[in-house]
């Protein structure tokens, strides 16, 4: 089958083994990003075949997220976490242990994502580290994923010593000038160094990008795909751009879901053994979006059942009406896609 630009999608099967040296691969990727209809279905089939080589048992991971704090030291143009006028909170370490114990005993969770606004404040990071150490002491078989932004090498080292197994640090955009345009209070070089620090310290590292950022080009997406794939990551991800209410980008158009799904499929083809989540942003913009994410190669689902209900509205991401999929729904879409969930 050929797209309207005449490039055969099955040529992409060579990406995993031959890399991106030839211009034809870059052009094929650009064509694949535009795939719709039958061409998109073929691309998704290729992604699922790649996933099956990396996960022949068809397992998918389920994890709970605890949004530890909405204090964020960044003022990103697209995100309203930590915006002025929002009541700030931090979940104390002892409460964090109680939440983890409940999820472990009552929900059977064995993977926990600890997320917050970006914050390297010493007292805050110490609170997180203490909580993680207590959790691992009581539940040594639980997998902890940290996600609190750029930290110092020493802070990462202390988190690793406390038992944090993985760390999620999204690069958001692999082109430094685009990254610094959308995150004007951060430096791309620092973000990149943090990824190296995490790998050196023995974390299982995850990273990802946002598809549809203002100013993003097709060449940027090709570069993003190369960047993520060259890092040999434990987890790769792509989320669709949704501008946060009250942000600099509030009135910018949302990213395209179909392009995001196609980028996910390409990520899977290039990274057959990596975990890849299907994000709630897909569902926010398109009915059955998270199911389509699984069909495009994803194999991780996140349950939003760890943040106390009284605090959930204070961690909006894009607005207070963010989509929070429940356990039953995510289990159903995974089963519908022919995968099986492992806690």
Write the layout of secondary structure elements.
Elements: H1 15-18, H2 23-33, H3 37-54, E1 59-69, H4 93-106, E2 111-116, H5 122-138, E3 143-147, H6 153-161, E4 166-168, H7 176-182, H8 188-200, E5 204-211, H9 218-230, E6 235-240, H10 257-270, H11 280-285, H12 289-295, E7 300-303, H13 309-312, H14 327-336, E8 340-342
Helix pairs in contact: 2-9, 3-10, 4-5, 5-6, 9-10
Task: Explain what you see.
By secondary structure, the chain is α/β, with parallel strands linked by helices. Helices cover 43% and strands 13% of the residues. Helix 2 crosses helix 9 and helix 9 packs parallel to helix 10. The longest helix has 18 residues. It starts with 14 loop residues before the first helix and ends with a strand.
Apparent shape = globular
CATH superfamily: Aldolase class I
Terminal residue distance: 39 Å
Rg estimate, integer Å: 19 Å
On the 0 to 100 scale, the average pLDDT is: 91
